């Protein structure tokens, strides 16, 4: 039995190592070659920060990067607000008429191909004679990411003890104040997690943005895609490395914030 367990453990560890290598080895190679001094991506020419300097001197890339960050921040904030309201409606309104239809329409972007979503949004903006640019991309990304926020927040609301909110109302709070003082602090981590998920999805999107963007409002993924068609430049490796570092910092900060919140909750529990 001991030998069997040992063999299974080694097999599992080997499978895990191969899986992680398959997922992260290309990213490691990209990060290493972002410090390559050679102009050719496949030829190593020594360590250098040349391509990071090139990126900060490339006005078109900088504009695209700022556009992506602005669109991601605004759309993630709007998605977090609308998704939270939708989650509250679904979690607390079990019996309202049209709940099944509302839920199906809300979750449809989760399973609908992005090409169909992007084309339908493009037709909508054309019918409304809306000028395609920053706000059309932001609205499209909000539509895409709101359902993800709803799923995260609704799952948190489903496990909360509603008797705490009812006790607050028994002590004199109106429903809105009871929600703000009792329920909202408990679902803030879920809202933050939903915001981060929406931010990453917006930052990563190419398909929907390609349908809804306009002249002078290209996001960074679209700009990179147009550059890659002419050949991969080391500058693109530097850009991707900086965004990987940004996302890693956000994840680490969120992890520490979550641990700090849990530690405060445990320390306050005996009181």
UniProtKB/TrEMBL annotation:
Residues annotated as domain ABC transmembrane type-1: 65-257
Record keywords, A-Z: Cell membrane, Membrane, Transmembrane, Transmembrane helix, Transport
GO BP, sorted A to Z: transmembrane transport
Membrane topology of this protein: Multi-pass membrane protein
This protein's record includes keyword ATP-binding: no
Major site of localization recorded for this protein: membrane
Transmembrane domains' residue ranges: 12-35, 64-88, 100-128, 134-157, 178-201, 236-257
Cross-referenced InterPro entries: Bact_Polyamine_Transport, MetI-like, MetI-like_sf
GO cellular component annotations of the record: plasma membrane
Location of this chain's protein in the cell: Cell membrane
Signal peptide: none
Pfam families tied to this protein: BPD_transp_1
Family that this chain belongs to: Belongs to the binding-protein-dependent transport system permease family. CysTW subfamily.
Record protein name field: Inner membrane ABC transporter permease protein YdcV
Gene responsible for this protein: ydcV_1
